[in-house]
Amino acid sequence: MAVVFQPIAPRPAPVKTEGLVPWVRANLFGDWKSSIATLAILALGIYYLPGFFGWAVANAVLTQDANLCQQARGVGACWAVVGEKFRLIVFGRYPYEQQWRPELATLILLALLVASCIRRFWKPWLALVWIVVVPAFFVLMGGGWFGLESVPTDQWGGLPLTIMLATFGIVLAYPLAIVVALGRRSKLPAIRSLCIVYIELVRGVPLISVLFMASFMFPLFLPVGKSPDVLLRVLVGITLFSAAYLAEVVRGGLQAIPKGQIEAAESLGLSYWQTQRKIVLPQALAMVVPGIMNSFIAIFKDTSLVTIVSLYELTGALGLALNSDADWRPFKIEGYLFITMIYFAFCFAMSRYSLWIEKQLNVSRTR
After folding, report:
1. Which residue has the higher pLDDT, 113 or 212?
2. What pLDDT was estimated at residue 1?
3. For residues 187 and 4, what is the distance between their CA atoms, to the nearest angstrom?
């Protein structure tokens, strides 16, 4: 019997899953709930954005003239306040003629942070660069060496102080948090109890209380003239406070590791520290990357609280710049929007870097 050729009916082309239109369809109009939310947000944007654009751009004052800004109040933004008070906002009370020093120190520290986040620079020499850059930062900021004029820490402020507190708070809190998380899961009752008391005690009070205790109460328990510098006390307070919260994030990753892996390592003769270093910690830390980055972002934003101890970081320097000048005092909104953009830029960069790390870890798991 002859075989008759029967062509297969054409099938529809595969649905495109990449590009702008598929992304909009999947994320903004995936179902009726997301569609309603998207349309509501668009309606609010259409209603409010023209007015905001007129205030922020069309009618804004850029000329550094306080009279023009007063005339435009309620109609246009006075961005001139940023240019007028830029140095005081960014560098705080640091001496004007010496402000090249915090600018150079901040650029060096930021360059080191960027290099430390790039995989190709993860070499042994990077640790030596940290050993060189950290003292160089404090020499430039504090002076007293190589002919530089000495500047006390109570005059440090603005963006350099914010970046310095956030950087060293993160760098010091991260290893301490790992040790405390391991200690809380220790089989030794004394170590476990000590770590539990530390975590619960610190997490039970706000950061403002810790900074207040470190700045005003701690010196009362020391001999007169023997108290550490206020900046050092504040940095220690931020580090201890952040490490307690970060330790709980790390502990969550440690508890997610199957017990069978630890038993297998013990059966191979690995010691406790070899097991933690080669098997447990690499997996545990990879699981909690989003939580760790959330803690890092919180540390960066919590630096704004040091104003309570008379250290004028970025937010405090803005208040110092505007409160001391009655002509520019009414334009705080523009100043706060300016520093909001700075905070957003740093926090957004940290968030995107966290996503990159997660993507790299996912690639390693799928091999």
Report:
1. 113
2. 63
3. 77
16 in a structural domain: no
* Amino acid sitting at position 165: L
What pTM does this model have? 0.84
Q: How many CB atoms lie within 10 A of CB 254?
A: 20
User: For residue range 43-55, what is the model confidence (pLDDT) as tens digits?
Assistant: 999 999 988 888 8
In a domain, 47, yes or no: no
3-state DSSP assignment of residue 205? coil
Instruction: State the alpha helices, DSSP H only, in 10-157.
Output: 20-27, 32-53, 66-71, 80-84, 86-91, 100-116, 125-142
Token representation of residue 246? 């970060």
**Has residue 174 been placed in a domain?**
yes
Q: Would you say residue 61 lies in a domain?
A: no
The confidence band for 296, taking pLDDT boundaries of 50, 70 and 90, is: very high
Separation of alpha carbons 183 and 247, rounded Å: 10
Spatial distance between the Cα atoms of 177 and 344, rounded to a whole number of angstroms: 26
CB 182 within 8 A of CB 276: yes
> d(Cα 250, Cα 199) in Å, to the nearest integer?
13
Q: What is the CATH number of the domain that holds 251?
A: 1.10.3720.10
Nearest CA-CA partner of 323 in 54, 140, 93: 93
- Cα Rg, the chain, nearest whole Å: 27
Number of domain units in the chain: 1
- Of 67, 80, 138, the closest CA to residue 109 belongs to 138
